[in-house]
User: What shape does this take?
Amino acid sequence: MIEAALRERAEDLDPVALAEIYDQYAGKIYSYIYHRTGDAVLAEDLVGDVFVRMLEAVRSDRAWQTSLQGWLYRIAHNLIVDHFRRATKREGVELDERWMAAEHPTHTFEGLFASNQLQLGMRFLTEEQQQVVVLKFVEGLSNVEVADVLGKSEGAIKALQHRGLSALRRVVSAHVEA
Assistant: This one.
């Protein structure tokens, strides 16, 4: 297993292994955090925090056991939750209905993610629905990978995705009609 060998090298604090992990995942983690917070500076700060926490965990023999990617996304998620708990005003993401009908929803969704309508729509989703939408349509993870990140079954991810997209459609329809 490549990931097991990488974990062993990271546990030995091998700088090449740690750099490999950072190089492979920093961009993905940044994108995930940015799309959840809408703040580039905050995303940069939190990415640094993710890798500091990763290093602290590796040093204290609490490294990932199954999926490095899932573990890093989970650390990022926890940092985002902590940030929003401390924040007095929550920033959201906006919705444009066009992404839902596009031939390539991932590309369109990501392109429209910063629009005002998507920001409004995402505010109406539960925290878990927001995570699923971002991980699936922005980060491009599969249902299995999202399930691993969130610690849920694949069926639960499909249900969260369905309910989240349905809620977004309702919000868009209401907003368009208004």
